[in-house]
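Lecture 7 notes. Example A: sequence first, then its structure tokens.
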Amino acid sequence: MVRWLIVVFLALMFINGLAPLLRRLGLGRLPGDFEFRLFGRQWSVPLASTVLLSLLLSWLVRWL
């Protein structure tokens, strides 16, 4: 269980570090990606971008 928590934490840190690059590529601004302000902080829920990246990675893994 602890290993999974560490993996999820590292994955979130990695994705957070790549967020500016992905935003410049247009991910995070697709229809279905939600942004809202709550408690004085900007929150982002990139549903459409997550589905798109999942499909691309799935296709890439199957192709290789």
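Example B, a different protein, same format:
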Amino acid sequence: MQAHIDLNRCSGHARCAAADEEVFQLDDVGYALRAEFDVPSGAEQAARLAAASCPERAITLTD
């Protein structure tokens, strides 16, 4: 699974990191650091929760 974060839509709510702070890395003020990355095996459920929790719908997941 791959995560794509639209950095222009990210508003720094940090809800993705609340789902899994190791997968969704943020800068010092709560914005996503990486726009695209592979979701580690076993973290798919947390990635889905993070995508669903994002109020800006900035996270999309692909298999």
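Note on Example B: The chain has two helices and three strands. The CA atoms of residues 13 and 39 lie 20 Å apart.
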